[in-house]
Design a protein that fits this description.
Elements lengths: L4 H16 L3 H26 L11 H22 L3 H21 L2
Length: 108
């Protein structure tokens, strides 16, 4: 994971906290922002595949990758609203996923 992810997302979260507060409504808005960004990934993928015949091919794989990065950043910022130890929480979750993957592949 990028060494700058957590310092930058902490700064973004601090700016949002100062501008919008930290109440339940703001927490909900940060979660909704993750959903909004995920929708942009879907739109970019649809545009990449040319699924909409009226529009044709409008996006590239790089556009999809860019939108996926927005999802990651937005989710990391949202995580700050729910945990004071965001890096440790994600690290633990990532290691748990790796353990499940290892257990699954060893059982095959």
């Amino acid at each position: 994971m990028s060494a700058t992810l957590w310092p930058v997302t902490a700064r973004i979260a601090a700016v949002l906290d100062q501008a919008n507060g930290t109440g339940e409504h703001e927490m909900a808005m940060r979660l909704l922002k993750v959903t909004e960004e995920a929708g942009e990934v879907a739109a970019a993928y649809i545009g990449m595949t040319g699924q909409n015949p009226r529009k044709g091919t409008t996006h590239t794989p790089a556009d999809v990758a860019d939108e996926l990065c927005d999802v990651i950043i937005t989710a990391a910022v949202a995580l700050h609203a729910f945990s004071a130890a965001s890096p440790a929480v994600l690290d633990a979750k990532l290691h748990a996923a790796a353990r499940r993957l290892n257990a699954h592949t060893e059982s095959e």
